[in-house]
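Troubleshooting: if your tokenizer reports a length mismatch, compare your output against this known-good record of 508 residues.
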Amino acid sequence: MSLTSSLYSGVSGLATHGDSMSVISDNIANVSTIGFKSARTTFQDVLSQSVATASGTSQIGRGASMSDVDTLFQQGSFQSTSNATDLAIGGNGFFIVRQPSTNTNYYTRAGQFRFDQDGKLTNPSGYIAQGWALDSKGNNIGSPGDIVLSNFSSPPLATSQMQAITNLDFSATSKTNSLFGAWNAAATPPIGDSSYGYQTSVQVYDSLGNAHNLTVYYDKATAASEYATAGMDYANTWEYIICCNPADDKRVGAADSLPVSGAAKGVLMRGTMTYDASTGALKDMSAYTWKSAGATGASINTPANWTQATFSTSGYPQFDASFVAGVPQTIDFRTGLRSQSSTFTGAANVNLIPVDGNATMGTPEPQALNSTQYASSSTTIYQTQNGYGTGFLETVSVDTDGVMTGHYSNGQILNLFRVTLARFNNDQALMKSGGNLWSSTRSSGAAITGDPGTNGLGKISPNSLEQSNVDMSNEMVNMIAIQRGFQANSRTITTADSMLQELINLKR
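Known-good structure output:
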């Protein structure tokens, strides 16, 4: 009886070592598989047989069985790639992918993703990566879903802020008594070089994404200036006008004055700038806009129809433009000086000159970047605006927090999606589904999803792929041990067979 039992014990040893060899061979076969996690086997003995001995009852083992096949979830090394959508997880967690045409989610450490022809972010098997859609501030919207690029363009944004920081030459002299009077929308160009001291242009955008040049013309004030008043510091005062191409001016009533000589169509703002005599910094300004557009008799050429500009909520004077017919566009003008009150002081209308020349900005506050008047050539120090035209998606990048952003041809960088990660209370209970995928089971528990880098989840490493964590040296050593164990178990079977043969040979 015991000899027969030893045969079965040897068979159990062969079976367990054979299964262990299968695990080792699978590990070695996947040594180059992206995101692969190696496995290991553990053995346990089986129930023992009780036998009678001189000292009482003793036990004889009946062989070995497979205790468990553990998956080793240790971090694999990262391989850098040139693809922005190749992702690796540094730490705990799995990417979530959905099988097409089903609602079944799978989990993977292999982040080899690409956008397919439909704009879906998929792995090589076509499973769709899951993530949150983001609002403009980068906040998650709703629940995780398919990462799909449905819009490859960035809508335009109409300009609402225009900044022109300049240095005007202190030694410059006046070229004209009135920049406003020198502008003639019917002429080409509307104002000649001999009529202003300096000009700078800023490209702005309308609501349709069309670009328009706004030019600020400057000229030194004199006693003959239309803004001249008693006590005006002519040496430190400049007048300015902000103009667009007359053909771009679609304000209602702006064209009514053409083709009168000196027509002011295209002039959007006018006023003065006053500089500090000791520091050269801009310390005050006035600003006027045409606010009676479309009213009967409210010609843009009439000074009485120009009133003091209003202020934006940020404290900058603002003017109205209309580059698209019927679509008003308000733009604030930033020169490095903002008002701490909501109005200008002084008289209300330009036609009250010279009294109106005393109009000043209410409680002016210089900014860190301010316009100046130094004894050097006039130049533009800095200029910018906040609008942009239509853009088209050029590249996509992913940050360590999983945020996917689109880089567009108009210079905009927009939030698109956040890659979702999942973790489980019992990773060992996950079921391998092939294709570098795991599926959840009742023993693994439900997936716990979250943003990368939060709630125990790892961070994303873009332009990287996690390599297999198989250790070849360990696998080779384990292979030797399993091979010898298999050989030894086979010897127990052949030895037991020989002993049974001897037993049979007792009867001749």
